[in-house]
Design a protein that fits this description.
Layout (H helix, E strand, L loop, with lengths): L6 H9 L8 H21 L1 H4 L4 E5 L5 E3 H14 L5 E6 L6 E2 L9 E9 L10 E9 L11 H4 L8 E7 L3 E6 L4 E7 L4 E6 L10 E4 L9 H11 L10 E2 L5 H11 L2 E4 L10 E2 H14 L3 E3 L16 E2 L1 E4 L1 H15 L13
Parallel strand pairs: 3-5, 11-12, 11-13
Antiparallel strand pairs: 1-2, 3-4, 5-6, 6-7, 7-8, 8-9, 9-10, 13-17, 14-16, 15-17
The chain binds 2,5-anhydro-1,6-di-O-phosphono-D-mannitol and magnesium ion (MG).
């Protein structure tokens, strides 16, 4: 009989590589997988339970909070705050870092997450996801409250990152820096089973993914790069195909499986980019690098950026390494040109 590997077994077996492991990381990952199952269940029946639609309140990013965002946020927090594994958390939905209530033990891990990314897709039944970053705390002692210093770590310090995609099936994909593995939720038995071992980004996927409505606002180098991908003079001798879902987890999942390049560059209206460094760019970059790809803001690797704010935004470009390198080359060459206005005039 074929060996069935549940996510719990996989995490446990991965931990045997670390003789000093105390079981706390394993426990933390169980809790994330549990939260994922609960959110997945709600996402699947959202239309039935009237969870669809907006709460009417505005979150820290100035966006309307959707009911499912709130549910996913509460589920993540309540799954992680009481087990004694975590000393502080950050969520896209909370302006301030999330402290562990005084009645609970504090632990050595730090978790930053976007509880429900791509929320504009909720009402239209398109894939959405949860993204998370796990670090070890840098402050001491280990049983004290964490502080923001614990959260503002570069991606090079990550212990683990991953996402859960709520799509035609629910999958959890994670890496601890030793390859990327994907697990599909079997709803019959309520277990995540290993279905995508050792995921590697394929070469020559021939795909590009970007919100092209921002074209006129991009830096010249980005405009030229995208024009090159669409021309018949690129190295594939035919235009790259365009795929853009507008939900980072879904676009990242496709890029891991099918290759290509995803871009959310800075532009005149969003000079810092749109996506968030700590709980969107860093975890995706760690997965992509561990799958053989690369992730940059145009100038440096995403994983080398030191966050200054938990909700900091960053330009995010990731995918096949060859394409990411080419993007950097176009970006650099154009930024060395004399700077003139990069904005294409509106047609009259
Ligand atoms: P959210 O965290 O509010 O859902 O927004 C982030 C989303 C990403 O999932 C996606 O990559 C991006 O915003 C899409 O932005 P746009 O609509 O500008 O293309
Ligand atoms: Mg988000």
């Amino acid at each position: 009989m074929k060996k069935l590997i549940t996510i719990d077994r996989h995490i446990l077996e991965t931990q045997t590589h670390f003789p000093e492991a105390t079981g706390e990381f394993t426990g933390l990952m169980y809790q994330i997988a549990l939260a994922a199952k609960i959110v997945s269940y709600e996402v699947n029946k959202a239309g039935l339970t009237m969870l669809l639609g907006k709460t009417g309140s505005i979150n820290v990013q100035g966006e309307e909070v959707q009911k499912l965002d709130e549910f996913a946020n509460n589920t993540m927090i309540s799954s992680l705050d009481h087990m004694g594994y975590v000393c502080i958390m950050a969520s896209e939905e909370n302006t301030e870092p999330i402290m562990i209530p005084s009645r609970y033990r504090k632990g050595k891990y730090v978790v930053a997450f976007d509880p429900l990314d791509g929320s504009s897709n909720i009402d239209i039944n398109v894939s959405i996801g949860t993204i998370f970053s796990i670090f070890k705390r840098v402050t001491e002692p280990e049983d004290s409250d964490g502080n923001v210093t614990d959260l503002l770590q570069t991606g090079r310090n990550l212990v683990c990152s991953g996402y859960i995609i709520y799509g035609s099936s629910t999958m959890m994909v994670y890496t601890t820096g030793r390859g990327v593995n994907g697990f599909t939720l079997d709803p019959g038995i309520g277990e995540f089973l290993l279905t995508h071992p050792n995921m590697r980004i394929p070469d020559n996927g021939g795909l590009y993914s970007v919100n092209e409505s921002n074209y006129r606002y991009w830096p010249v180098g980005v405009q030229r790069f995208v024009s090159m991908l669409k021309s018949t003079s690129n190295e594939r001798r035919r235009p790259y195909n365009s795929r853009y879902i507008g939900a980072l987890v879904a676009d990242a999942h496709r890029t891991l499986l099918k290759g290509g390049i995803f871009m959310y560059p800075e532009d005149i209206r969003k000079p810092k980019g749109k996506l968030r460094l700590l709980y969107e760019a860093i975890p995706i970059a760690f997965l992509v690098e561990n799958a053989g790809g690369a992730a940059t803001n145009g100038r440096m690797d995403i994983l080398d950026i030191v966050p200054e704010d938990i909700h900091q935004r960053v330009p995010l470009i990731f995918g096949e390494k060859r394409l990411v390198d080419l993007y950097k080359q176009y970006y650099r060459e154009a930024s060395e040109l004399p700077q003139i206005s990069t904005q294409t005039p509106d047609p009259k």
